[in-house]
Design brief:
It is a single chain. Helices cover about 45% and strands about 10% of the residues. The protein has about 475 residues and is of the alpha/beta class. It has 2 domains: about 260 residues, Type I PLP-dependent aspartate aminotransferase-like (Major domain) (Aspartate Aminotransferase, domain 2), CATH 3.40.640.10; about 110 residues, Aspartate Aminotransferase, domain 1. The protein has a 7-stranded mixed sheet with strand order 1-7-6-5-4-2-3, with helices on both faces. Strand 2, helix 8 and strand 3 form a beta-alpha-beta unit. The relative contact order is 0.13. One of its GO terms (biological process) is amino acid metabolic process.
């Protein structure tokens, strides 16, 4: 007895699923970005007992349309401005369908030669795309948080004052790591999970452009060394989550060299802009890093999940992650094989590289950089709209494609303005015409908009402004 059907029947299923996918990508002008259903409504829609009997696939696909497509937040749509969520691309959708059918696991070279070699190739391409040494080694992981964890694990292994492989960190002085106050929360998690302790993650103040203050960074390193601690790593952020700020990469590189620290750059979001005309100078120094994180599923328009790690010295990855039990040994008489299980924590690795490879092949580096530049133009356009409207206030510089602003009709205290903008963010979600998120800029509530979707047009940005003014005006009349 087999779970398979005839090739003819399987093709019919693929065709029907294709219609469902194509329908999702059609422009539905009146559809909401956020479906607006409550948790209880979604739970009720999906609640059912374990199915014991089979269901007709045509009916099952209808159910997907009814229950899944009707409840998603449409991050592929042109009016999704939340988080740093790339809109994906349709070539990569095809890649995902093919990938699932092949069911490759590239933990070892012989378990999936093409998956392994394509992953090595696309990470070399990513390195070239951002101006990082192509002699580096790279792997694809689920996202930036896991990728940053991966790199801090390498930094800890290489820069620890003791051999931690067998004895752990227990014989070491406390190890310190440095990042700006705008650094991603994944570093707090990594410090916790690596046993380094979150209190030894030094959050360095930022300047008026939200970039790390390099003088205070160096002072903190000196103070920690004088206190008997052991600094191991300093982190630059090339595109912060809040505002898109890019630290002075060369200045931090010089400090790392001076104090023998591992130099890590979190370029998960901003990295793909590194060789784009007009902003490339901000990324000067990226090639000096010992490790870099850059996520193709952000600004290379690849669908989730594809978070990239690049480490300049491949031996540092193997020294950190290589453990080969008897059941994973294989005959390598001819040599030349790379087992990616030696470069990261997971053994199980899906064929993430296919969608990255097909994306870069289909569009080419020049076209992708043009789209990145276009996203930055969209951010500048919104910032111009904000700047020309007396009821809107820009809250931070716009170096890349993130815009932080707030509704400010004037005459309100800061606490009232914060409550008003908190309520605007909630009301925009309920309204559903556009989707954005909020953040804090120097303690003040801001509406945060991110442009990394080629489908977004000028009229979508104008609608965003209209919605903010409409909802802000309505709520502002009540003076919260």
């Amino acid at each position: 007895m087999s779970l398979d059907v005839s090739p003819k029947q399987f093709k019919r299923w693929i065709d029907e699923a294709g219609k469902l996918i194509a329908s999702h990508y059609q422009e539905h002008g009146e559809s909401k970005v956020f479906a607006g259903k409550s948790p209880s409504e979604v739970q009720e829609l999906l609640n059912e007992s374990l199915p014991e009997d089979p269901k007709n696939i045509g009916s099952l696909l209808d159910e997907v349309g009814e229950k899944v497509l009707s409840t998603i937040t449409n991050s592929a749509g042109p009016r999704y401005f939340g988080y740093i969520t790339g809109g994906g691309n349709q070539v990569a959708v095809l890649a995902e369908m093919i990938k699932a059918s092949l069911n490759q696991n590239n933990l070892k070279w012989h378990s999936s030669p093409v998956s392994t070699e394509l992953e090595r190739l696309v990470m070399r391409w990513v390195a070239e795309f951002i101006g990082y040494p192509t002699s580096s080694a790279g792997v694809l992981l689920s996202g930036g948080s896991v990728a940053n964890f991966n790199c801090l694990a390498v930094a800890r292994k290489i820069k620890a004052p003791v051999d931690i492989s067998d004895e752990g960190i227990y014989g070491s002085r406390p190890m310190t790591v440095y990042v700006s106050e705008e650094g991603h929360s994944s570093f707090d998690k990594a410090m916790d999970m690596l046993g380094l302790g979150k209190k030894y993650l030094r959050k360095i103040p930022v300047d008026d452009d939200f970039c790390i203050d390099v003088d205070q960074l160096e002072e903190q390193i000196r103070n920690d060394k004088n206190a008997g601690l052991h600094p191991i790593c300093a982190i630059s952020v090339a595109g912060t989550t809040n505002t898109g700020a890019v630290d002075d990469l060369n200045a931090v590189a010089d400090i790392c060299q001076r104090y023998d620290l591992w130099y890590h750059i979190d370029a998960a979001y901003g990295g793909p802009a590194a060789k784009v005309e007009g902003v490339s100078s901000m990324f000067s120094g990226i090639g000096k890093a010992d490790s870099v994180v850059v996520n193709p599923h952000k600004w290379l328009y690849v669908p989730f999940e594809a978070g990239g790690v690049l480490v300049k010295n491949p031996d540092h990855l193997r020294k950190t992650f290589s453990t080969i039990p008897d059941y994973l040994k294989s005959d390598e008489q001819n040599g030349g094989r790379t087992d990616l299980m030696e470069y990261n924590l997971p053994l199980t690795k899906e064929f993430k590289a296919l969608k990255v490879w097909m994306t870069i092949k289909a569009y080419g580096a020049t076209r992708l950089r043009d789209e990145i530049a276009s996203d930055m133009d969209k951010a500048r356009y919104l910032s111009e709209l904000v700047g020309s409207n007396k009821k809107l206030e820009l809250m931070a510089p716009v170096p890349l494609s993130i815009v932080c602003f707030r509704y400010n009709p004037g005459g309100m205290e800061e606490s009232t303005l914060n409550r008003l903008n908190d309520n605007i963010i909630q009301e925009i979600e309920s309204d559903g015409r556009v989707f954005l998120t909020g953040t804090k800029i120097k303690g003040k509530t801001a509406l945060r908009v991110c442009f990394i979707n080629p489908r977004t047009k000028k009229e979508d940005i104008e609608l965003l402004e209209k919605v903010v003014l409409e909802i802000g005006g309505k709520l502002g009349r009540d003076r919260v």
